[in-house]
Specification:
The protein has 93 residues and is of the alpha+beta class. It has four helices and five strands.
């Protein structure tokens, strides 16, 4: 069963979550899928990500804190390189 339909040379697809038929430009690219696009539209993915972040704030904050603690030297070096490469931006502030 193909999910893509060509109408007036515009490919469309039905979102697996909201079931609304939309143009392919409203889907993210996913190389491992049969048609090369995500099964859910960008709006549904955004909505799901927002809900996840709001319901897991403590878990995400703990992960971020642990990541910063575990990678202090790497972060420090990346900041140093950024400052060197973007001196003009920092001076013009």
């Amino acid at each position: 069963m193909l999910k893509d339909i060509c109408i007036d040379s515009k490919a469309i697809k039905s979102c697996s979550k909201c079931r609304i038929t939309k143009n392919l430009n409203e889907y993210g690219i996913r190389r491992d899928s049969r048609d090369g696009y995500s099964g859910r539209c960008k709006m549904c993915i955004r909505k799901d990500n927002k809900e996840y972040k709001e319901s897991n704030k403590i878990k995400i904050a703990a992960y971020n804190k642990k990541y910063i603690e575990d990678n202090k030297e790497i972060i420090k070096e990346k900041k140093r390189i950024y400052r060197i490469n973007n001196r003009e931006k920092r001076i013009n502030r």
